[in-house]
Amino acid sequence: MEKGKVVYKLEDDISTDIIYPGRFMATVLPTETPQFAFFDDSEFNQKLTQGQIPPGSFIVAGDNFGCGSSREQAASCIKGYEITVIARHFARIFLQNSINVGLRMIICPDIEADEGDELEIRDNKVWNLTSGESFAINPLPEARQAIIDAGGLIPFARQLLIERGI
Amino acid sequence: MAMTYVQKLLAKACGQATVEAGDILELPVHLAMSHENAALVINQFNEIFKGTGREPRVWDPESIAIIFDHRVPPESSKTATNHKKTREFVATQGITKFHDVRGDVGGICHQILPENGYVRPGQVLVGTDSHTTTHGALGAFAFGIGATEMAAVWALGSIMNIEVPGTIKVVVNGKFPEGVYAKDLILNVIGLLSAEGANFKVIEFHGEAISNLPTSGRLVLCNMAVEAGATAGVVPPDEETVRYLRNEAGVEDDLDLFSPDADATYDQVVEIDAGKLDPQIACPHTVDNIESIGGVEGKRINQIVVGSCTSGRLDDLEIVAKILKGKQVADGTRMLVFPASWRIYTQAMEAGYLADLIKAGAVVCNPGCGPCLGIHQGALGDGEVALATTNRNFKGRMGNPGADVFLCSPAVAAASALTGVITDPREVN
Ligand code: SF4
Predict the structure, then answer these.
(1) Does residue A1 surpass a pLDDT of 70?
(2) What residues of B are in contact with residue A101 (Cβ under 8 Å)?
(3) A161/B70 touch (CB, cutoff 8 Å), yes or no
(4) B116 CB less than 6 Å from ligand 1?
(5) d(Cα A97, Cα A103) in Å, to the nearest integer?
(6) B185 and B276 Cβ atoms separated by less than 8 Å
(7) Which residue ranges of chain B lie beneath pLDDT 70?
(8) pLDDT at res. A142
(9) Is the CB of B151 less than 8 angstroms away from the CB of A157?
(10) Is B200 on the interface with A (CB under 8 A)?
């Protein structure tokens, strides 16, 4: 059972330049990237950095979330706040990066929610408790399920390394 | 089972007779490329080995390429320190394909790999850069991955759990008219497919216009395939591929050349008549926001940018130099040129192109990503407008979310530099 509020509502085609601007790319460590999340929206960035966004909150976006660059900082910076991203669709590299670093994503092609709405994830659906509607969740890529189950690619790869005696 | 080009490639790479879209594979990697973000890859790589009792060792130091290009020479002490750590890692691990900040071997990764003969048809090539799709121009299955994924490749030598993608076939018939180039074609394709129209798919290019296109133009097409969301772009190898590899990239060993099956199944087929194309412009703030040049002609431009891994090759510089030679960049417009590699820079210098550009008022920057990212060179002022031959115009690209970026071919950039407004190159002589 997972409940939380929508803290940020975004449109289609949110690029990695918006999530994590290129000028902060010299900062790479997952422990340091969260400070620059959505930096060019100073209002939301301040809410994040000043601790006003509780873990378990939701970002809701449209199609093609995370398009553009392969920079993994875009996934690790959101992961740092333990926010879940719900989007109608994700861009491929972002989706892969998120699985690899353990950022929680939900593919929900019909999602309707506004900032401030209360959401609950239950029975493979997103329930918008504010509007009373519910929306089906699409599964994450089956190929990657083992990596998700392992808690990310680092523990998954470590396990393989040991098994294969590399 | 009939297969597309990439399906055949994947079957060979995995030692299977056939693969189908949707199959899940562990895919052996032939070449693994990183740039500045190697600093993060190294961190994640060391994490993988933690607690295993083993010393971190890459699976094959000769199959890893590291090229410094995104912020060269370093714009900050942070980048310089990342470079330093990466250099130390390269030395410790014995990585052979390393391109440091140097005039003899440096440049942008997506030019360095082809021009040094690192890319071959049939290869599985991954890079921690979304424009790794570029290398499909030489018949590799080349795609972008994140840093943690790369760390696992460095450790294990393969991409774990990847799904065989479906393919979109783009057939380009006819001949390009005067003043219209590969860049206009790919902008047109992205407009048709949309920014996510090829998400999780491969775009395979075919047709008369592609057969006649030199590798430099094919690199442009595959470079920007990712702007339609594609996993990879690919041109099945042909005589031109062999010519480029032998004559320009110095490759001497045997090549594995094959074609897709004629009756392969495609998810979608798009036919385009190259002869009907106009110069195309991508308008702010998405690459699929495409207009024919007639729709945006006359738009005032503050900064023209020519270069990048997309359109910073010798033939691009030649086109631009020929338009600008003996003329001046318009007052109130600044023009930045950054060749894709130092080899190209040197060739352009010897051909006299750089002198023509400089005398016309252009600023020639060192090869590297420079203004494309706007981190330490060529950032835009508030409310300014740039016209660039690069590949992305997202809000905040070129360093300022309050500026607009339009994308175009080198010919449009050069014609517009003369007038200071977006100008059709067919109207300039
Ligand atoms: S030139 Fe631009 S698009 Fe190409 S690799 Fe560099 S930053 Fe990326």
Answers:
(1) no
(2) 146, 148
(3) no
(4) no
(5) 8
(6) no
(7) 429
(8) 87
(9) yes
(10) yes
**Which pLDDT score is estimated for B1?**
85
Contacts of B42 (CB under 8 A, 6+ apart): B85, B86, B89, B151
Q: Matching CATH topology for B5-254 and B279-427?
A: yes
Q: In this structure, which topology does domain B279-427 adopt according to CATH? A: Aconitase; domain 3 (3.30.499)
What pLDDT, on a 0 to 100 scale, did the predictor assign at position B429? Answer: 67
Mark which residues 32-51 of B lie under 8 Å from A by CB.
Answer: 36-37, 39-40, 43-44, 47-51
Q: Are B342 and B104 in contact (CB under 8 A)?
A: yes
If we measure between CA atoms, which residue out of A90, A75, A102 comes closest to residue A10? A90
**Per-domain boundaries in chain B:** 5-254, 279-427
CB B108 within 8 A of CB B391: no
Mean pLDDT, residues A1-30: 93
Per-residue confidence (pLDDT) for residue A36, from 0 to 100: 97
Average pLDDT over residues A9-34: 94
Distance CA A102, CA A97 (A): 8
The CATH number of the domain where A123 resides is what? 3.20.19.10
Relative to the CA of A69, which ligand 1 atom is closest? 8
Q: What is the tally of structural domains in chain A?
A: 1
The mean of the pLDDT values for chain B is 97
Do the bridges between strand A118-122 and strand A105-107 make them parallel or antiparallel, or are there none, so unpaired? unpaired
Interface test with B, best of A23, A35, A103, A107 (most B CBs within 10 A): A23
Query: How far B327 CA lies from chain A's nearest CA (Å)?
Result: 35
Q: Whose CA is nearest to atom 4 of ligand 1?
A: B309
> Residues near B254 by Cβ (< 8 Å), separated by ≥ 6?
none
Nearest residue to B122 via CA among B205, B33, B32, B31 = B31
For residue B199, what is the DSSP state? Answer: B
Does residue B373's CB lie within 6 angstroms of at least one atom of ligand 1? Answer: yes
Mutation pick from A29, A93, A147 vs chain B, by most beta carbons of B within 10 Å, is A93
Report the CATH superfamily, name and number, of domain B5-254: Aconitase, domain 3 (3.30.499.10)
CB B376 within 8 A of CB A22: no
| Two tokens, residue B6 | 């990439």
- Residues B389, B392, B397, B401: what is their CA dihedral angle, to the nearest 10 degrees? 110
pLDDT at position A166 over 90: no
Q: pLDDT band for position A143 (50/70/90)?
A: confident
Phi, psi at B409, each rounded to 5°: -80, 165
Range of the structural domain that residue A66 is part of: 2-163
- Ligand 1: does its nearest atom lie under 6 Å from the Cβ of B369? yes
Residue B192: its pLDDT value, please?
98
